[in-house]
Amino acid sequence: MSRINTLLKFCLGADESGGYQPIGFEDRLSVTISEASQSEYELLLSVLNMDWELDRWAHASLSEAAQKIEQILAQRYPELEPMVLRALSNRWSYGWH
Known about the structure:
Blueprint (H helix, E strand, L loop, with lengths): L1 H11 L12 H11 L2 H11 L13 H15 L5 H13 L3
């Protein structure tokens, strides 16, 4: 399943440290979807559309919440590489208030 990691890295604009690039995300998502097989597409949507219940994290610091999100992702999607997990966590934290 390394291909799903490649697709997500591209889609998220992830750098080597697991950074997330929100600028251009929609364009990269369109390209990623066009390249994905049906099973990859379903996994992409599942990962990208997770409901994180943002209010649930209001009491935590951003760092604590991001670490917890990364742990949840790792448990739910063991096929994802640590860098992809970090980029997804950074994507989540980008929208955190």
